[in-house]
Design brief:
alpha+beta; Aldehyde Oxidoreductase, domain 3; about 45% helix; 3 domains; about 450 residues; binds uracil
């Protein structure tokens, strides 16, 4: 069937035949299908959806458009984590060395900041010398030596997804669960994993703010992973407010080091330990989540996770002294400005999208994929929703490199932390756990 007929079929609510996906995505990766036709197909999928077999067909076709890791020779299981992203989400920097130190191999493939959300690669590159642009071969060698490699999607991995994702960004076709799930999973499955833990964010700062959408995305990705023999578990975690205090690349590295040293904000530590426990169970080194938590907590508190972080940073060209004295090696922004409460009351919200927009205005994020970023700038969040403050108490501290950019950020942040009379409803930090078996509510985790 010609591609034009396939577009028309999807437009009219029909199915794409199982054997059509591979030739379609291969032809697209080889520039034999023009972007305007693929954009029409993407929009037809946004409007009509894909059934589970179609999602599987698209995922497999994008996966097979590129190279894959081959890690079957490693003596231990390979498990990765994917976060759908948000503000202050520095968990990968802590989790990868932590889980590696506990005996599971972690090929951590991450992305860059785009829009209001941060990206792990930009955070790692705030460490002087750190190289994230490593090849599959180099990553495999690092996994053999250190159980861990932290890299970006190389040109070799899922090139059809790379091209389609960029096209979706330019044609208002990103926000569709089948396309998001196939895109994420085509890259993750290229890592030759035994297990995958998904951190699916919900709330105002999440890619899909609505909880029902987040659950549907989690279930779709779990279905794709499990069909391909990769045990997949998801936790729904809160992104209605930033995670932790630090938002901005170097600031987040410093906060990650604090958590790796056994300290840091309680919410960052809790999300990290919960995800680590899942990874350690999938990796076969913990019999259950409680045992996984115990292992992960011990590795954070006795310095093993920090030691592994130091080794990985050095192995990827970074300055290992960042593990001991982050501000001894990373650049600090020269200007800081505190935003204080104008009146006494209770913090209603800490608006993640406003903080993300302010970081872009400061030069620390991207509105276009080729923007160069300033690693030193960012925002330190001093309060949490529900916290009581007096007039004059600090709410946010802005770290800036230029006064003009500071002024733009202050304007964006003016209404980012509203103060009111009544306490806002509490939100659980980790609300649900989703597996192939179903959805479980997790009452009693920290409020966020
Ligand atoms: N991240 C991806 O890699 N792909 C999407 O479609 C959305 C988020």
């Amino acid at each position: 069937m010609r591609f034009l007929e396939l577009i028309a079929r999807k437009r009219d609510g029909g199915r794409i035949p199982d054997d059509a996906w591979r030739p379609m995505m291969q032809a697209y990766a080889a520039d034999e299908i023009p972007d305007y036709q693929m954009a029409a197909m993407a929009m037809a999928i946004v409007l009509r959806g894909l059934d589970p077999a179609e999602i599987e067909g698209l995922t497999a076709a994008m996966l097979e458009s590129g190279a894959r890791f081959s890690l079957g020779h490693l003596p231990m299981a390979r498990v990765d984590k994917h976060s759908t992203g948000g503000l202050g989400d520095k968990v990968s920097l802590i989790l990868a060395p932590l889980v590696a130190a506990c005996g599971v191999a972690v090929p951590m493939m991450s992305g860059r900041s785009l829009g209001h959300t941060g990206g792990t690669l930009d955070k790692l590159e705030a460490i002087p010398g750190f190289r994230t642009g490593i090849s599959i071969q180099e990553a495999e060698a690092l996994l053999v030596r250190h159980n861990c490699a932290m890299l970006g999607q190389t040109a070799e991995i899922a090139p059809a997804d790379r091209k389609l994702y960029a096209l979706r960004g330019a044609t208002a076709t990103v926000e569709a669960i089948p396309l998001i799930a196939a895109s994420i999973m085509s890259k993750k499955l290229a890592e030759d994993l035994n297990g995958l833990v998904l951190d699916v964010k919900t709330g105002a700062g999440a890619f899909l703010p609505d909880q029902a959408d987040a659950l549907a995305l989690a279930r779709t990705m779990i279905d794709i992973g499990e069909r391909r023999g990769c045990r997949t578990v998801a936790l729904l975690t809160d992104m209605d407010a930033p995670l932790g205090e630090a938002c901005g690349n170097a600031l987040e590295v410093a906060e990650s080091v604090a958590v790796l040293r056994g300290g840091g904000p309680a919410d960052v530590r809790e999300v990290t330990v919960a995800l680590a426990a899942e990874m350690l169970v999938l990796g076969g080194v913990a019999p259950d989540r409680a045992a996984g938590r115990t292992l992960a907590t011990a590795a954070l508190d006795d310095g093993r996770a920090l030691a592994r972080f130091r080794v990985i940073v050095e192995a990827q060209g970074g300055d290992p002294r960042v593990a001991d004295d982050p501000w001894g090696v990373m650049a600090r922004a020269p200007i800081t400005q505190t935003i204080a409460a104008l009146a006494a009351g209770v913090v209603q919200r800490v608006e993640p999208r406003a903080i993300g927009a302010a970081i872009i205005a400061l030069g620390g994020g991207r509105s276009h994929t080729d923007d160069v970023i300033d690693p030193a700038v960012g925002v330190m969040v001093q309060v949490r929703p529900g916290q009581r403050v007096e007039a004059g108490d600090p709410l946010l501290v802005v770290h800036a490199s230029e006064s003009q950019r500071l002024a733009a950020a202050l304007e964006i942040l003016a209404a980012a932390v509203p103060i009111g009379a009544a306490a806002p409803p509490k939100r659980p930090l980790i609300s649900h756990r989703v597996t192939a078996g179903g959805v479980e509510e997790l009452p009693g985790t920290l409020p966020h």
